Amino acid sequence: MLADALEHLVRGIVDNPDDVRVSAKNNRRGETLEVRVHQEDLGRVIGRQGRTARALRTVVAALADGEPVRVDVVDTDRRRG
Q1: Cα separation of 40 and 57, whole Å?
Q2: pTM (2 decimals)?
Q3: What does the UniProt entry say about where the protein is found (predicted)?
Q4: Residue 8, H or E segment
Q5: pLDDT for residue 40
Q6: Dihedral of CA 25/29/35/39: which sign?
Q7: Domain limits of the chain?
Q8: For the residues of the chain, what is the DSSP string, one character each?
Q9: What would the CATH number be for the domain defined by 1-75?
Q10: How many CA atoms lie within 13 A of 63 on its CB side?
């Protein structure tokens, strides 16, 4: 449910909503939601000084109802070496 909600929020922000992918992984510390977007939308999802990413994390934490959850915005640019 959290992954779907996060995907919905991110799709509303970006210019390429079909490229948005949110995957959920469970680990010892709780759930991790990895957000992947089109490279051109990365700055849009992070926002100035990380404000948009922080706001997304706040909303997801509220929806998680006290359960530990982490939101990672993944940079998928493969050209870096």
Answers
A1: 21
A2: 0.87
A3: Cytoplasm
A4: helix 2-11
A5: 93
A6: negative
A7: 1-75
A8: -HHHHHHHHHHTT-S-GGG-EEEEEEETTEEEEEEE--GGGHHHHH-GGGHHHHHHHHHHHHHTTTS-EEEEEE---TT--
A9: 3.30.300.20
A10: 17
CA–CA distance, 78 with 10 (Å, rounded to integer): 22
Retrieve residue 80's tokens: 């870096």
pLDDT tens digits, 7-43 = 999 999 999 999 999 999 998 888 999 999 999 999 9
Which residue type is seen at 19?
Answer: D
The pLDDT assigned to 3 comes to 94
CA distance 21 to 36: 5
Rounded Cα–Cα distance for residues 31 and 73 (Å): 14
